[in-house]
Design brief:
The protein is 97% helix and 0% strand. By secondary structure, it is mainly alpha-helical.
Length: 112
């Protein structure tokens, strides 16, 4: 019987705590000052979150621009290198052609 009373008292205490929580929630809704305070707190959080979002967006944009500039510089360097290689190959081909002509002239002179 004592155990049954303890169980009932425990259940009653749980119910009383639930009722008190509900009463506090009802009172906070009915209390315009508490409601305004909660709204102000949530608005403040929204402002902070928006500022954080904007800051992260600015960082992302700056990082994206830096990467884009690095890629453009790398592509420019590759283009310059390709031009250099093309010029060197043309010079080599010209030199080779001159040597072939010189060899042909020597062979013609020797073969006369």
């Amino acid at each position: 019987m004592a155990r049954n009373n303890e169980e009932q008292e425990g259940a009653l205490q749980v119910r009383q705590n639930e009722v008190e929580n509900l009463e506090r929630k009802i009172a906070s809704v009915r209390d315009p000052v508490a409601l305004e305070t909660a709204i102000a707190r949530y608005q403040s959080q929204c402002v902070e979150l928006e500022a954080l979002r904007q800051e992260e967006e600015e960082e992302f944009t700056a990082e994206r621009e830096a990467i884009t500039e690095e890629i453009a510089a790398a592509l420019h360097s590759c283009g310059e290198y390709m031009t250099h290689v093309k010029t060197r190959l043309e010079d080599f081909q010209d030199s080779l052609q001159i040597k072939r002509e010189t060899i042909g002239t020597i062979e013609d002179n020797v073969g006369m």
